[in-house]
Amino acid sequence: MRSRSLEHRGRRVGPAWAAITLCLVTVLLVFSAPAHALPEIEGWTIRASFPSGDPSPPVITCTAAFLIDADTGEYLLSHNANARLPMASTTKIMTAILALETLELDAKVKVSQNAVSTIGSKSRLVAGEVLTVEQLLHALMVVSGNDASIALAEAVSGNVAAFVEKMNAKAKSLGLTNTHFVNPCGLNNKKHFSSAKDLAFLTQYALKNPVFARIVDTIYFSLPPLDPVPPAVKGELRDFDNQNELLKRRAWVTGVKTGSTPYAKSCLVASGTMEGVDLIAVILGAKDSETRWKEAQALLEYGFSLYPRMLLSDIGQLVAEVDIGDYLGRKVRLVTDGPLVARLSRNDVVECRPALDGEVEFPVHAGDRLGTIEFTVKGESIGSLGLLAAQSMERPPIRMVLERWMQWCPPHLRLGG
Question: Of these four, 83, 159, 309, 373, which has the most CB atoms within 10 Å of its CB?
Fold first, then answer.
């Protein structure tokens, strides 16, 4: 009888003790288990889109035009781009390159009579005055002074003929197969020519030099005043503004050089930057100045339209819900800490790669930075955002664990069941 009684009692209390034991084990696991590392978050890709269809290219009336992405060299528009044409003062891009690569900016140059005697546009240099290379480069590229081009040529090579040889050697080394120079300023000559394509890639090379890029983006410039001529007591000012009218019309225009002769007509090499997109446009043989401004601007705006603004991520965008080892099955929602907008070309594929900073431990507070999402195109970063916890999460209290356990637990194992 005694043994049967104990057996009977065991049947009644066994499940209760099992429940208590399971509960205690659960509590111990919850409060003693180490923090779990956040898992790897799957990334995704974004492509450029044109909801209204591909942009239409502008109408071009000039003799030749060319448009490229200054960073990649990708052709965006080509019109008679390989034609050998007179290019007027856009020649001075090459003159500036050779001066920058040969002379120190603060080097002193004495202006020769030969320089001031040249024909065409002048920067009002005076024979015998001494200017720095940097001043002469401004006179060359901002004012378009033929006198400055001769002064720099003589400073680099001793004479113009030797300098022109350097110009042609440099053109050959850059692969400019439709370019030949006869002078450093752009005066007309049948053997002095270039193409829209060559000028675009010459400019791409030149803009890699930060001093060149700074000078061609200068709107106003002054040379030292001329000495007074009696009975005047003050010297005559030499204040100039850039011949590139586009610099004054659009804030995103960054250069580069005008050119104009009766033979070349109106020419322009223009560069622009907008939201990380750098473009170079070339216009040769426009009928007048206003046409070159209008068509160069249209080219650049068309180029930017090929890089639509894409919202890669909005602020507070949900990126993932991640398991951090919570025994109640709760997950932390990760959201972005800001918006990110970029311009993408039609061929760009943006890789969006979220990554966690490391293990996450309780407690998690709303706004905690837990990781980063990097946006890359062809392996190069175009921006990044932080990943924040969207909500707070404390370690679950015993009562919550027990309540959840009671919900999960089979009826025959519940306390008091």
Answer: 373
